[in-house]
Amino acid sequence: MQERTDLSAEGSPSISLSEYGGILRRRRAIILQTFVIVLVAGVLITLFQPLVYQASARVLLEPPSYLIQTANNDPLAELFKLNSPYSPPTQVELLKSSAIKKRAGQLMTNGKSLTNYSVVPVEGGTSIVEVIAEGDDPNAVTETANKILKAYIDEVKEKGSEKLDLVYAEAENNLNKHRLAKNKAERDLLKYQKDNQISELTIQAEANQKQLGEVSQLYQKQLSEINYLTTRIGEIVGYMNRQKKERLRPGLLGIEQDPNWESIQKTIADKEAIMAAAKEELGDDNDRMRALKAEYSRITQYATAYKKGFEKKNLVRDPTYEGFDVELKKLRIDLASTERSAQPNLAAIQTLRNRLNKVPDFTSRIADLKQIQTNAAGRIDYFSTKMQDIELRKNAKVESSRVIEEAIVPGSPVRPNKPQNIMFAGLLGVFLGLCLALLQELLDDRINSPEEAERVLRLPNLGHVPLVEEEGLRLIRDISTFSPLMESYRSLRTNINFAAVGTTLRSIVVTSSVPAEGKSTTAANLAMAMALDGKRVIIVDADLRRPSLHKLFRQESSPGLTDILVGTHEISEVMRSCGVENVSVIAAGSPPPNPAELLGSARMVELIAQLESLADIVLFDSPPTLAVADSVVLAARTNGVLLVIGYGETKKTNSRQAVERLQRANARVLGTVLNRVEGTSSGYYYGKYYVPASVESSRTGRGVAEPTARGIEASSETSENELLGKGRD
């Protein structure tokens, strides 16, 4: 059973460069047409495109040298915008503004209008801006670039001058305002002193005020010291209280080691024993028990007192606690001393306040008027200095921008670049042509090359037959031995032999996927090509529905294959010669009502065996595989199948379906043959290579041909010439 092949994918083998070359050859018409159309369009567009000239000028944006430094709280700071010059991107937008365009348009001479222009900052972190003007008039574009820069520089200069004037006016207003404030403060001070008749008491009050301030300052310092000492004493006292229970630590001697304590404990034990015995004898409520209890109480109290005295006597004090105790005593002494020093100052403060209360309250008013006068004098000096600074900068007339490169009249247009445009149009035409060719090839479902047939069907391509235009030259017996058609069938014959190496190939079915692909002609010519190889060949027309072999060989269609199958004739009665030695033809015979049943009958199996015994190989011309089931039925009973594909006509889908049907019937598909191939794929070189020696010598003018490869090959074909000659006779 033949191995099944999955034909659903086309991924392997991949497309080779030669196949791409074949695509370009097949689609050369659309490539050439697209190239010519795009090239002509490009040439016409270039020729009729208006000329565009370009001119550029550059300006350097410098920070202004008349910057005025102001304080953060200066009322003029908001007006001095020149402290922060605009960035190049901002200047670019300013150059594009309608105000600059309008001003530059007024500067144009001879009634010219501004052309289109663009403004770009020069890269590299520079402060240079470039103005590029384009238009059809070289003089206009030059003047546009230069006038735009001139309008921009004039605009910046005027704006800067206006800003300085505005700042100067504001400074002058502030100067006059502060002068008025100073004069008013002076007048108010004189009037206040005169109205209140300030005398020696005033001077004394001022001295008392000063002394009060000094004493108050000293007293406040003493109060701070008293607060500190009080707080520190409180902290130490609290710490000592917390540590009071822990400030003692045990000494070297314990109370258990004291003989007196041991005697006391023994006495207490004896008293407890006497009390216990008396209680059993007398009970609790009697005088003796009460006396014993009182005596026992005195003894236990004595023991407790003795124990406390012993511990106190045998313990030593904590050094840290002792240190705090010393510090506490010192702090209390300092506190008492500071409090005693503060008492006279507090009394002095009370005395000075009493004195000041007796003096009229005019000191603060005088101080306020003097402060107003001093502040006004300072602002007058400040604004006077700024006004002088502004006048100096106005007189300097420093420009914040300057032209570093003026535009010059261009000598040639920048667009269109005719050679470049034409070259681009040509390249674009080639590119679009290739794209359309590949798109057309992608959308084309037809098989257009042997390589494509192998890739699509995953079957070997055993040959390709060139296209024969003349109807009468379809059979190789009617043409020259050295024609491309003859050589194509020789190659097909050889490739079939190679495909059958290792197996016996006695019967072959020649079929196609759809009608009109040339299977009958291929079967007839293949039979004659095999006969030229010395084999006995029988070709059978198994297309019982539309037979055509009898037309090719100019014979009668009956009797034939159907007559043998129904038993009315024998093989010898229907087999005829076609005019070529070793080739016999069996026509289709009378049209049957059931062709598929006849071809699938047991009689057909017997007939195939009989024909194989009479010839070296039997060729069956069968109907198209997709049209009817006849070829599938017949292919399952023969040794191999040859699938004929019409070049540029057969669809890939049909070919795949035909192969799948044959393989499902366990038919052995030997390969494909591409029929009616056009162009270089048809093997045109055969006609130039295989030329008889006599013909070659007559061309070169030599009497005898040299033993070249052509002569040797021609001599090897002599027997085939003789066979074909006999056929023509």
Summarize the structure.
The chain has 729 residues and is of the alpha/beta class.
The assigned CATH architecture of the largest domain is 3-Layer(aba) Sandwich
Number of helices: 25
Number of domains: 5
- Return Rg in Å: 65 Å
Give an overview in words.
The chain has helices spanning 17-26, 28-48, 88-95, 98-107, 138-196, 200-242, 259-282, 287-313, 319-357, 363-396, 418-443, 450-457, 484-499, 519-531, 549-552, 561-566, 571-574, 595-599, 602-614, 630-635, 652-664, 686-689, 693-700, 709-716, 718-728, and strands at residues 53-61, 116-121, 128-135, 248-249, 316-317, 401-405, 461-466, 507-512, 537-541, 575-577, 583-586, 617-621, 640-646, 669-677. Strand 2 and strand 3 form a beta hairpin. It has 729 residues and is of the alpha/beta class. It is built from 25 helices and 14 strands. Helix 7 (259-282) runs antiparallel to helix 8 and helix 13 (484-499) crosses helix 14 (519-531). It is flat and about 165 Å long. The protein folds into 5 domains: 17-49 and 416-443, no CATH class; 53-175 and 385-405, Alpha-Beta Plaits (2-Layer Sandwich); 250-317; 450-690, Rossmann fold, CATH 3.40.50.300; 692-729, no CATH class. It has an 8-stranded mixed beta sheet with strand order 7-14-13-8-12-9-11-10, with helices on both faces. It has a 4-stranded antiparallel beta sheet with strand order 2-3-1-6, with helices on one face. Strands 4-5 form a two-stranded antiparallel sheet.
Q: Could you list some keywords that capture this structure?
A:
11% strand; eight-stranded mixed β-sheet; alpha/beta; 25 helices; 729 residues; 5 domains; Alpha-Beta Plaits; four-stranded antiparallel β-sheet
